[in-house]
Amino acid sequence: MNPENWYDMINTNLNGAFEVVHHIVSNLINKKCGSIVFIFSITTIKGMIGQTNLFV
Q1: Where do the domains of the chain lie?
Q2: Between the CA atoms of 39, 37, 16 and 47, what dihedral angle is there, to the nearest 10 degrees?
Q3: With CB atoms counted within 10 Å of each terminal CB, which end of the chain scores lower, N or C?
């Protein structure tokens, strides 16, 4: 994986999640209720062949 693809993946999977939470969390705090649930792939827990992201 080249650096550009790595940063695209991080921007989508990590920064995207942060931006969503950042946008809605103050509303949840003001209402004093609500939940944020993230659903991830099983590969988060158990790696799979071909799913390793390495700089080449």
Answers
A1: 1-30
A2: -30
A3: C
